[in-house]
Write a structure and sequence with these properties.
single chain, about 375 residues, alpha+beta, 4-stranded antiparallel sheet, about 45% helix
């Protein structure tokens, strides 16, 4: 009896709500009480719509910010930073590599040394050290610079001979060679003999030149001397190997008269050709080409290494995921309270009913005892 009473109470309450809903629907919308006091559900719906509109406007305004701080954007920022850092580092490395290559491949273009002549018995001679200024497989022009006073002895000497020898570095001497002087251990790599003579001037021209330049001679701005440049080698080249590159030069002045010298020097000028000529005369273009080539090869190598490393790490991650044990899903059994009990439907009506609700909610439906019994298990 209690279940039937409970069902009857539910039916009466549903009828009461239906009557109240019908009365509200039949009211005139022009009624001031109706307009001043709208239904609570409609007011809540208006509030919810306003909140949704405000939320949508905020989301639209923040959409660019969300896109800028999203995970794909962060990955793009990180990739761009790594690419720019790697590019700058490899560019600096390429510049250093090209500088080292330039200074090792392109030799010194001009080498000048002073030869200090030794006077005594025999002809005057002098020796100068070149160190490592020259390189192999490079053509050189060699000339002597002579600064001579116009003394009577020098003018009377007429033609005199210049004997120039290019000497190799000293090798590690053997036991027998240690008894020999160091000069005997040096090999002659190149030898040249060339004549030289002071410029001739007649006595009348010499006297006239002296008189016109007398003020300059008195002030010390001009001296009675002459500088001569005598070419000794043209395009001399040395084979590959450090023992074939000269390290010293020896000059012997052969003359019938005892000559006087202010200064004697040697000048060695490199005659570049091929790649060395391009690198020396077009330095900026050579730097751009070679640095770009080195940078491109370095970036390609770095990209290949990055792809290989990424593939390897991705394969390791996939293999680790496959090895993780998968926990089996256990089907949950229904509790005793959730199981269907046919006795609960006893006393219910078999008639299909529809119960109205307030506002715009969906009406409630009662399907009857037989339908509930069919759907229950």
């Amino acid at each position: 009896m209690s279940r039937r009473v409970y069902v009857q109470q539910l039916e009466e309450e549903s009828r009461h709500r239906a009557r109240e809903g019908g009365n509200k629907a039949d009211r005139d919308p022009s009624d001031s009480n109706f307009n001043e006091h709208p239904p609570r559900d409609d007011l809540m719906e208006i509030i919810e719509q306003g909140k949704a509109a405000i939320r949508k406007i905020g989301e639209t305004a923040l959409l660019p910010f969300h896109a800028a701080v999203s995970k794909p954007a962060q990955k793009a920022y990180l990739g761009t930073f790594l690419f720019a850092t790697t590019s700058l580092f490899l560019l600096a490395l390429s510049t250093i590599a090209y500088a080292l290559f330039y200074f090792n491949y392109v030799p010194q273009v001009s080498v000048e040394r002073t030869i200090h002549l030794q006077f005594g018995e025999g002809h005057p001679y002098g020796v100068a050290t070149l160190d490592s200024s020259l390189t192999s497989l490079q053509a050189y022009d060699v000339s002597l610079l002579l600064h001579l006073p116009r003394t009577p002895n020098n003018q009377a000497a007429g033609n005199f001979m210049l004997d120039l020898s290019l000497l190799s570095p000293v090798k590690a001497p053997s036991t027998a060679e240690k008894l020999l002087p160091e000069s005997a251990l040096k090999q002659r790599l190149a030898h040249s003999r060339r004549p030289a003579i002071l410029t001739y001037t007649s006595p009348i021209i010499d006297t006239a030149s002296t008189l016109t330049g007398l003020p300059w001679y008195v002030l010390g701005w001009k001296t009675e001397s002459e500088v001569m440049e005598v070419s000794m080698f043209e395009g001399v080249e040395f084979p590959k190997g450090w023992t074939n590159v000269p390290q010293e030069v020896k000059l012997v002045v052969e003359a019938d008269e005892k000559m006087q010298f202010y200064e004697v020097g040697i000048r060695i000028f490199a005659k570049f050709g091929g790649l060395r000529w391009i690198m020396y005369h077009h330095r900026i273009l050579s730097y751009v080409i070679f640095a770009t080539m080195f940078w491109s090869s370095s970036m390609t190598s770095a990209l290949i290494a990055w792809l290989v490393l990424s593939t390897y790490l991705a394969s390791d991650t996939t293999a680790a995921k496959k090895k993780e044990p998968v926990s089996p899903k256990i089907k949950a059994e229904r509790s005793e309270s959730e199981k269907y009990e046919p006795s609960l439907t006893e006393g219910l009506s078999d008639t299909f009913r529809t119960f109205p609700t307030l506002g715009r909610h969906i009406p409630l439906h009662f399907t009857g005892r037989e339908e509930s019994a069919r759907r229950g298990p």
